[in-house]
Amino acid sequence: GAVVSQHPSRVICKSGTSVKIECRSLDFQATTMFWYRQFPKKSLMLMATSNEGSKATYEQGVEKDKFLINHASLTLSTLTVTSAHPEDSSFYICSAKHPGMHTEAFFGQGTRLTVV
Amino acid sequence: AQTVTQSQPEMSVQEAETVTLSCTYDTSESDYYLFWYKQPPSRQMILVIRQEAYKQQNATENRFSVNFQKAAKSFSLKISDSQLGDAAMYFCAYRREYGNKLVFGAGTILRVKS
Prior knowledge:
The complex is a heterodimer of chains A (116) and B (114). In chain A, 0% of the residues lie in helices and 53% in strands. In chain A, strand 4 (32-38) and strand 5 (44-51) form a beta hairpin. Chain A starts with a strand and ends with a strand. Chain A is globular. Chain A has strands spanning 4-7, 10-13, 19-25, 32-38, 44-51, 57-58, 67-73, 76-81, 90-97, 105-107, 111-115. Helices cover 0% and strands 53% of the residues of chain B. Chain B has strands at 3-5, 10-14, 19-21, 24-26, 32-39, 46-52, 60-61, 64-69, 74-79, 88-96, 103-104, 108-113. Chain B is globular, with a radius of gyration of 13 Å. By secondary structure, chain B is mainly beta. In chain B, strand 7 (60-61) and strand 8 (64-69) form a beta hairpin. Chain B has no helices and twelve strands. In chain B, the strands form three sheets. In chain B, strands 2, 5, 6, 10, 11 and 12 form a six-stranded mixed β-sheet that branches. The mean pLDDT of chain B is 95. The chains are: A mainly beta (116), B mainly beta (114). The interface between A and B is medium-sized, with 20 and 19 residues.
């Protein structure tokens, strides 16, 4: 099966700093990746769709200057939370679309971000 | 816009018994995909089962099966012979046939009692 790796799995940062989360497709090329945010015991909220070589498409209400997405290669998308605040603390999950398996999305293991 | 509704925030089942999780959705599309994902305490999202809307036959994967009622826009998941490892949060999700985005329901926490 297709593997998506997310790093780091946990990160603690200070208020006002920026933190980068990586999402890699290990055994396939992903032209499209997705970033979700999940609060405890809640559903996944799509933040943005990351397209290789072009700008990300953000969902309504998501601050693009706050959550910077870069999809610089066919196997890597990054989410940078800029000037983090405690309210940005959450679980962030990425997923990638496999070009040969158009029905499925494959998920990373998620990143727990804590801003102190 | 498409919406997915899971009306059961929590469900419990005795080990070895059968449980059914409910899901309804709203769409004006005729072709789409429906999914059930499992999220155990590790938080890793795992695909449980997938149903193509054009297929009348209900999908099955070992102990997991669905009851897909297209006209009623209903997509329930049946777990037979429940095991302790089935304890997790289960999400129903919808995707347009040629779309990229998954639309998730609110989730159902499944507890399995020994």
